[in-house]
Design brief:
The structure holds 2 protein chains of 2 kinds. Chain A is mostly helical. Chain A has 2 domains: about 1-35, no CATH class; about 50-285, MetI-like fold, CATH 1.10.3720.10. Chain A is about 70% helix and about 0% strand. In chain A, strands 1-2 form a two-stranded antiparallel ribbon. In chain A, a hairpin with a 7-residue loop joins strand 1 (about 40) and strand 2 (about 50). Chain A starts with a helix and ends in an 8-residue tail after the last helix. Chain B has 2 domains: about 15-55, no CATH class; about 65-270, MetI-like (MetI-like fold), CATH 1.10.3720.10. Chain B is built from 13 helices and no strands. Chain B has helices at about 1-30, 35-45, 55-65, 65-95, 105-110, 120-130, 140-160, 165-175, 180-190, 190-210, 210-215, 225-235, 240-270. Chain B is globular and about 75 Å long. The chains are: A mainly alpha, B mainly alpha. At the A-B interface, helix 1, helix 3, helix 4, helix 5 and helix 6 of A face helix 1, helix 2, helix 4, helix 5 and helix 6 of B.
């Protein structure tokens, strides 16, 4: 074997296992999901081609519209809570004279590493109607705002989304904080000389310079909200009725509880297309130009 | 003077308030794992337990096979880390350091997985696993976990391999080292920090993952911790104290891992965000 052949063989040894594995386990299944969404299929017997029937049925299904709305609400809560609060806390943490920075950062990140099931179960107790932490807090403050958070038609999905917002805010905080740290000091000095106030400085300098980070944060927060499953599954199982349904839950229910694999595939396909549309939209809307200092 | 105090309050006040928001629910959980239902929801909602009821933990251990779930989660997480790191390291090395026409296309293909929700492959995956009879082994979840963590791991390793100077391989080649020796003896040790970051991140992911485990594992003997917790919730929903005890015990390992390796976790997160969506 010549050394060129040896090099090429090594190249194959290094790349083929990974590429093959990824293709078989990810790429081909994705294509299969799209393909199967046009079939009536129970997962065992032969699938029958039915064209767009699954999609027509989906758009006729009340669960679908509830899930669509809930996905958007979920995404909205994550964006406001995680990116909004992440920005405020990130700016506060990057203040040069701050003491205890490491402590704050670590504390804010701890919920991220917990199991989502534990967090959901914890918040079931917090939201508990009779004497849960939240209602007890309201009672303590003398307010009568107490309610059944998880079973209320207008509170359920918001309460579930808030749980996720609380758990994963730290991810966004770390990303935003790191990005702020990489902004050159001289830009702030210039602003100081010009007499810009604290908030003007951050609105005019920090936030625009974070556009690359925001792009990433928006994509993970929005797609995370649209994909939501774990919290709602553990906390309400979609109920009462269908008020806390999401697309992933629809897919789960259709495929793994009613053996309607074709219908479940259609729900999954719509979900992926929705995520893709938002990703494209974010890429278009958030400033594209490369940042130069 | 007054101005300085105001400024301090404005900076530290909100920061400390959010410490409370972030930590108090967890402290509250720790407290209620030692309380009985009456204390949790009516007589002593906020404070420390009036009496430390260790029996909650005893009851939890008696009713819940915690060790089994720990063992399963541990095997699954370690398995996922090992396979992910090996596959991603080899591929990233080839993409970042070796000369071939499709190096860049290959890298983009592998990293696209970062933005694809796992949901989309669940249905075909279940069929594949049924056909290959993977469902009765740990591989039922390890295989999909590895497949989906490869993108993230590749991004990190690629970035690290790219940052190393090219002279390393040139001098290794002059010394007569072949590709494999160069990779295992020289390059892999150089990216140890990246391996640590990826390992911890992937470990935490596999330890906490829920949806894939829910769909793929039906055998109780193979269930991971999140599934075990769900089972416990449905069986013992009225005993909040024991439930709290189980939640506390299953949470301790991840918090420890994070407190020990917080730097690596944060680094991995930041590097992976640099990929263009």
């Amino acid at each position: 074997m010549t050394s060129k052949q040896k090099y090429n063989l090594a190249l194959l040894v290094f790349t083929v296992p990974t590429l093959l594995f990824f293709t078989v386990m990810v790429t081909i299944p994705i294509l299969q999901t799209f393909q199967k969404s046009f079939f009536d299929w129970d997962g065992l017997s032969k699938a029958t081609f039915i064209g767009f029937d699954n999609y027509i049925r989906l758009f006729d299904d009340d669960d679908f519209w509830v899930s669509l709305k809930n996905g958007l609400v979920f995404a909205f809560v994550l964006v406001v809570y995680q990116i909004g609060l992440g920005t405020l806390l990130g700016i506060a943490l990057s203040s040069k004279s701050l003491r205890g920075r490491k402590f704050f950062k670590t504390t804010y990140f701890i919920p991220v590493v917990l199991s989502g099931v534990v967090v959901s179960q914890l918040w079931i107790a917090i939201y508990n109607t009779d004497g849960g932490l939240l209602n007890s807090l309201f009672a303590l403050m003398g307010s009568n705002y107490e309610q059944s958070w998880l079973s209320g038609e207008h509170t359920s999905i918001w309460a579930i989304a808030f749980t996720n917002g609380w758990q994963n805010m730290g991810v966004h905080l770390v990303l935003i904080y790191t990005a702020i740290k990489s902004i050159p000091e001289h830009l702030y000095e210039a602003a100081k000389i010009d007499g810009a106030s604290f908030w003007t400085t951050h609105f005019k300098i920090t936030i625009p310079l974070l556009s690359e980070t925001y792009k990433f944060c928006l994509i993970i927060a929005i797609t995370g909200g649209l994909n939501a499953f774990q919290n709602m599954f553990v906390m309400t199982s979609g109920g009462p009725g269908n008020i806390s349904y999401t697309f992933t839950f629809m897919m789960y229910k259709a495929a793994f509880r009613s053996n309607e694999y074709g219908y479940g595939s259609a729900a999954a396909a719509v979900l992926v297309i929705e995520c893709l549309l938002f990703t494209i939209l974010i890429n278009k809307l958030v400033a594209r130009e490369k940042i130069s200092y | 003077m007054l101005k300085r105090i105001t400024k301090r309050t404005l900076t530290y006040g909100p920061l400390l308030f959010y410490v409370l928001v972030s930590l108090y629910p967890l402290v509250w959980l720790l407290f209620y794992s030692f309380k009985n239902n009456e204390e949790i929801f009516s007589t002593n909602v906020f404070g420390i337990p009036s009496e430390w009821r260790i029996e909650n933990y005893k009851n939890a251990f008696a009713a819940f096979d915690l060790l089994l779930y720990f063992k399963n989660s541990f095997i699954v997480s370690i398995g996922t880390v090992v396979f992910t790191v090996i596959l991603a390291l080899m591929f990233s090395y080839a993409a970042a350091r070796m000369k071939w026409k499709y190096a860049n296309a290959g890298r983009i293909y592998m990293t696209a997985g970062m933005f694809i929700p796992m949901q989309i492959i669940l249905i075909p995956l279940l069929i594949i696993e049924r056909t290959l009879h993977l469902q009765n082994s740990y591989l039922a979840v390890i295989v999909p976990y590895v497949a989906f963590q490869l993108s993230f791991a590749t991004i990190i390793f690629y970035a690290f391999f790219r940052s190393l100077p090219y002279e390393i391989e040139e001098s290794a080649a002059i010394d007569g080292a072949n590709v494999y020796t160069t990779f295992f003896r020289i390059m892999v040790p150089l990216v140890k920090p990246a391996i640590a970051s990826v390992s911890i991140f992937v470990f935490l992911f596999a330890w906490n993952e829920f949806l894939v485990a829910l769909v793929m594992i039906s055998d109780n003997a193979l269930k991971t911790l999140p599934l075990g917790l769900l089972y416990f919730q449905t069986q013992f929903s009225s005993d909040w104290g024991a439930m709290g005890a189980v939640m506390v015990l299953s949470t301790i390992p991840t918090i420890l891992v994070y407190l020990l390796f917080s730097e690596q976790v944060e680094n991995a997160l930041t590097v992976s965000s640099a990929v263009k969506g």
